[in-house]
């Protein structure tokens, strides 16, 4: 990230914190003014025609790829954190004859496996 951009973000955050510390609400208009965007056309994904890949575009790509490849719970469709909380769930329930083989197991949230699925 460039030093200029860091300074702009620092100034923006300083103004937000100052206004909030004075017990004032930060409005959308405040954010536009604080970010020096007053009177400018704002777009969520500007293409500047440069061949250089910006840090913002790298971040956008990384996040999109990560989310598209993330493991999700087949019951609630939420993202799973396999390092913290995952349950091995029978697809066909044991009480319905399901056995513990890879083809009949799915990763799910423990809550979804124990509560929602019941």
TrEMBL record:
InterPro entries: HNH (IPR002711), HNH_nuc (IPR003615). Coiled coil: none annotated. It holds the Pfam family HNH. CDD domains: HNHc. GO terms for molecular function: endonuclease activity; nucleic acid binding; zinc ion binding. The keyword Cytoplasm does not apply. Transmembrane segments: none annotated. Keywords: Endonuclease, Hydrolase, Nuclease. Residues 73-115 form the HNH domain. This is HNH endonuclease. It comes from Neptunicella marina.
């Amino acid at each position: 990230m460039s030093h200029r951009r860091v300074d702009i973000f620092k100034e923006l955050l300083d103004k937000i914190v100052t206004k909030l510390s004075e017990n004032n609400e930060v409005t959308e208009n405040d954010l536009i003014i604080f970010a020096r965007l007053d009177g400018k056309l704002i777009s969520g994904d500007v293409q500047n025609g440069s061949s250089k890949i910006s840090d913002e575009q790298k971040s956008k790509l990384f996040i999109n790829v990560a989310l598209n490849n993330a493991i999700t719970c087949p019951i609630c469709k939420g993202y799973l954190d396999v390092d913290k909380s995952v349950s091995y769930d029978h697809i066909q329930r044991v009480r319905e004859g399901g056995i513990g083989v890879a083809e009949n197991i799915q990763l799910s949230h423990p809550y979804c496996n124990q509560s929602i699925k019941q």
